[in-house]
Amino acid sequence: MIWNSKPQIRRMFRKITAREVEDRRLKLSTKGRYGLRALIDLAQYSGETPVSITSISDRQNISERYLEQLMSMLKKGGLVKSLRGAGGGYVLARDAS
Asked: Would you write out the chain's pLDDT as a tens digit for each of its 97 residues?
């Protein structure tokens, strides 16, 4: 599960307390927001084929270099898988549903 992964991932996606939800004080860091946007983009566009960083970057208006760093952290956290080669890219590690 995500909470057993690296400290960087835990900071990006920390557990949300009921009080925060009730008080609507939930805040995500920029890194967390961009990581979430990348995951949502992968869920929408990957299907059976991997999605390149360039295509995510273009759709989400996130720098490719920053997105590479985020995807590396998400990969270490077990949320995405990378596929190398000419048709390579990233896919979700588990089914989006």
From this structure: 444 555 655 565 566 666 666 666 667 788 888 999 999 999 988 877 899 999 999 999 999 999 999 999 999 999 999 989 888 899 998 887 7
Q: Is 1 exposed, middle or buried (0-12, 13-18, 19+ CB in 10 A)?
A: exposed
Q: Work out the number of other CB atoms within 10 angstroms of the CB of residue 69.
A: 14
Instruction: Decide: 53 and 5 in contact? Cβ < 8 Å.
Output: no
* 3-state secondary structure at position 70: helix
3-state secondary structure 11-64: HHCCCCCHHHHHHCCCCCCHHHHHHHHHHHHHHHHCCCCCECHHHHHHHHCCCH
Residue showing tokens 């059976």: 48
Token pair, residue 74, equals 């998400």
